[in-house]
Amino acid sequence: MKQEHLNSIRAFNRFYTKLLGVLNKYYLESEFGLPEVRIIQDVYLHPDRSSKDISSELNMDKGLLSRLLKQLEQKGYICRKGTERDSRMGLINLTQKGCEIYHRLNAAANQSVEEIFAHLNDNQLQKIINSMDFIYNTMNEKETNLAVKKVAPIVIRPIEEEDNTSIACVLRASVEEHDAPKVGTFYDDPHTDMMFQTFNIKNAEYWVVECDGVILGGAGFYPTKGLPQEYAELSKFHFKPELRGKGIGKRLLQLIEQRAIKAGYTHMYIVSYHEFGNAVAMYEKCGYKHISSALDKSGLYQDAPFHMVKELQRKV
Asked: Which positions carry the signal peptide feature in this UniProt record (predicted)?
């Protein structure tokens, strides 16, 4: 790499870390530094987390992580429980106190970002977000071998009636894989076996992801009962394991959002569970904000911990 490129990258790193305030001892005017904040977020989004998983996800030194976990446990923010295989191996979860801290930190992080970028107009902000997306996607492709060509040809298309059985299997398999709730969710909903018919109504769409004739996932939007006018619910957004981590999820989400805008919606609503923490993290990155309670009256997902909303914006 040329020295001028090295200088430019390092200069930007210095600028952005200063802008975010991550070099201070305490982050977001809390009692925690950035490493503790990231640990709390990771454990909240991924219950029953092992220290090995946290270390891998955050690329954090195991010694440092061990010390920080001990401190968080002593302060009552996390707790550990033994696994079935080894009672000595503690799976890490947030306590009630820890969950309250997470929500406080999450709100402070949102406020911090809004303050940093408040002086920009919509066009400037979109350009910055596009640049961030380019950096993330480019670097992430190298880090985790996300080249889409490895699963090509990928086809994203509207659902057809003959897809009903395949997509129902994908959806229920995802719930089983993540050990997510089955009762009171789409898992035990008979409409899951009739996806084409369910979404074949006005102002609803469902799209499937297909590779070499095999259905690997899908997502849609639906005018769920009880939602405010011009709100749609992001519905049944699930993939098979072999499709995850290849950038297809974000690509499909963007498509669904633009199709919803075309159908006349201004906001997208999401309901999710702790077991789908990776998806929740993606929603947050894509601009979805947490709200305190459910908006819909569908009768499903009444115990879901995550309810999120995003104001949709048409691509320029």
From this structure: none
To the nearest whole number, what is the mean pLDDT of the chain?
A: 87
Residue 109, number of CB atoms within 10 A of its CB: 17
pLDDT of residue 213: 83
Prediction pTM value? 0.55
One of 1.20.120.340, 1.10.10.10, 3.40.50.300, 3.40.50.1100 is the CATH number of 3-118, namely: 1.10.10.10
Nearest-Å Rg of the Cα atoms of the chain is 21
Q: Are strands 267-272 and 231-239 parallel, antiparallel or unpaired?
A: parallel
Tokens found for residue 312: 């949709």
Rounded Cα distance, 13 and 133, in Å:
16
| DSSP string computed for 264-301 | T--EEEEEE-GGGHHHHHHHHHTT-EE-SS----SSS-
